[in-house]
Fold this protein.
Amino acid sequence: MSWVSVGHVRDLTPGEGRTFVVDGHQIAVFLLPDGSVRATTAVCPHRGGPLADGQIDSDVVVCPLHQYAFAFESGLCTTGEVEPVPIYAARLQDEAIHIRV
Ligand code: FES
């Protein structure tokens, strides 16, 4: 695995997500209100909903299709019997978004 720069933090809106394609992976990147970034697979493991369009707080993203919530730290679904969402390590370095893929 290696860190890949996917864009500048100004490409993100605080409290929202955006999908990037990295090495063929669709990855949803979220800018949290505290200024940190989190990343998950962009496709919901339930029925393929667009996780980047989901509502977030500091701990979870809620899929817009059926409102299941997934924890940023573990990927586990916190609201139902849905398989975990794959998560990616994400960081900001000199305002560049880096994802480990
Ligand atoms: S597709 Fe995401 S909760 Fe159903």
Q: What stands out?
A: The mean pLDDT is 96. The two ends are 5 Å apart (CA to CA).
